[in-house]
Amino acid sequence: MPRDGSAVWLRLAASRFALNRSVVLCQIPLTLIVVVLGVTAPLLRPGLISDPTFELGFSMILVLLALCVLVPWRELPRGSLLVVPILDFVAIALVRAGAAETQPALGVLVIFPVLWLMLSSLPTWAALGSAVIGSLLVTAWPLLGSFDPSALRSYVGVLLLPVVMLCIGITVRVMSASTRVRELDIERKDRELNDLLQAAIDRERVLTAILNTVDVGLTAVDAHGNTTLTNRQQELFNRLAVGNDDVDDGHGSLMFGPDRVTPLPIDRQPIHRALTGETFADQLIWVGENEAQRALSTAARPIKDADGGIAGALIACSDVTELVEAVSAKDVFISNISHEFHAPLTSVLGYLELILEDEHPLPGHLKGYVDVAERNAERVLHLVADLLSTAGDQVRVHPRPVDLAALIEMSVRSNGLRAQKNSVKLKTEAQNPLWTLIDPLRISQVLDNLLSNAIKYSPGGGVVSVRAEETESAINLHVEDRGMGMTEHEARQVFSRFYRTPAARRADIDGAGLGLAITKSIVESHGGSIHCISAPGKGSRFTVTLPVNGEVSRLPQDSMEESV
Q1: I need a surface site. Which of 96, 233, 301, 438 has the fewest CB within 10 A?
Q2: Contacts of 170 (CB under 8 A, 6+ apart)
Q3: Backbone angles phi, psi at 217, to 5 degrees
Q4: If we measure between CA atoms, which residue out of 322, 319, 320 comes closest to residue 330?
């Protein structure tokens, strides 16, 4: 409690000192001029200092300065300190009257109390009135108590200084009001800036809390790759990527490609790619080593300045280790179970073939049963082959120069009977010949999958067209139908394994949802791409783009899945 009392006393003392200092500063200029005049009087104006009127005014000014220093103005009623400029008029009148013969221009000293009054909190009329009356007192003091009609010009001259001070007072008041308006405007803008600053601080605090709450690693970097913002999750990823290194610059030494063992070059790391202006998403990398290694799905967007240049980048990393391991386990399971099915199915088909080729022919009804069993066994064997093909992300291809137009013609002929049964007309439009570097077996499989789907999903008949065109950098192969079609969302999902549209399931159309997944894998193994444009009730168009230079994805022989 005493400590709090001392603090209050100190604040009061500081406030009192500040007010007294302001009063003293207002009084010092007048006092300094009068003191200089009094000090130089014995040399320059002998006899001035001995004048009783001048001495009275001189002493009064010194007393007023002492009062400014000693009086506790803050404890007195508001406006009481204006007594000082009022008394200054009296002191200046005495000084001017005492030095009238040697220094008649001392009346100009009234400018100091006039300025004091005009810059005070008095109403304008009161301040101007006080200034005019005080100035009139200074000029009329020598004439008080006597009236000489012959000195009328002197009486008129008395009014000159009050009029001048009136004009000065009005000017000061106007300028003071204008200055006050500007000060209020500055104060208002200062409050607005403080409010904006506080709002920005609050938003930054909320943003930091959000960034540290989400389980996605976020990093913002400037144009030079220096980190400007990151969250706790990304700091954990960075520690994994850095390993035992002390320097964390965002370029981890323990950053690997999708195979988990090939070090990722700096020019392929997310930050470097984003700073080159590249935009990407769902790029898989691995960070860390041994049991601590984690799979990250990375995405990046460059940050551009007003001129369109790269000002930085934002990189997001999501931990997808469990998802990647689940997908890998699923592929292993599919591959294993497919191998397990393959051997007994081959045996079943062999024995069924032996039965049909036996020298003792079966009765007609039994032969029909065996034909049905053989047909269904072959169907299951094809399904197993499809499962094997989709167990890996890529399939093995053996490219060689091939006439793509001839492959298209052959595929159209092989699907002719199926199209006839569905009342579908096949139409071909391709440059002949159309030589390129591809795997004919795999591309034939692509054509068969796309054509069979187009026929199958056109139950009401119609036209299925196959068109191939060559550009400078690619060959575009289009397969278009006018069947049931799909929504935009379904068209994006149609290349996923085991995906079938709700309309296909409702129509009870045969299929396992593997054909387009295999097609996509084959096309990407050739270095190409495939996409679909579709609309419900208007059909679908699948476009396969193959590079004309025949670049293909090759896998080591020992890592290939069995081709079917």
Answers
A1: 301
A2: 128
A3: -80, 130
A4: 322
Measured distance CA(83)–CA(208) in Å, rounded: 59
Phi, psi of 402 (to 5 degrees): -140, 145
* Amino acid at position 25, single letter: L
Which among 411, 409, 426 is positioned nearest to 462, based on CA atoms? 426
pTM of this prediction exceeds 0.70 = no
- Whether residue 433 has a cis bond before it, omega within 30° of 0: yes
3 state SS of 507: coil
**Whether 345 contacts 384, CB under 8 Å:** yes
Give, in order, the Cα–Cα distances in Å from 322 to each of 281, 296, 302, 540.
19, 10, 29, 35
Among 264, 267, 295, which Cα is nearest to 282's? 295
CA 495-499-503 angle, to 5 degrees, is 110
Residue whose tokens read 């002493």: 59
Residue pointed to by tokens 């010009």: 153
**Strands (DSSP E) along 240-293, which ranges?**
255-256, 280-287
Q: What is the pLDDT along the chain (564 residues), one digit of tens a residue?
A: 444 455 444 454 455 556 667 788 888 888 888 888 777 766 666 655 567 888 888 888 888 888 888 888 778 887 787 888 888 888 888 888 877 666 667 778 888 888 888 888 788 888 888 888 888 888 777 766 555 554 445 555 677 888 888 888 888 888 888 888 888 899 999 999 999 999 999 988 888 888 888 888 888 888 888 888 888 888 888 888 886 655 445 455 788 888 888 888 888 888 888 888 888 888 888 888 888 888 898 998 888 888 888 888 888 998 888 888 887 777 667 666 665 666 677 777 777 777 777 767 777 777 777 777 777 777 676 666 666 665 555 567 778 888 888 888 888 887 887 788 888 888 888 777 888 888 888 888 888 888 888 888 877 778 888 888 888 888 888 998 888 888 888 888 888 777 777 767 766 666 666 778 888 888 888 888 988 888 888 888 899 998 876 444 443 333 333 332
Sort strands 424-430 and 255-256 into parallel, antiparallel or unpaired: unpaired
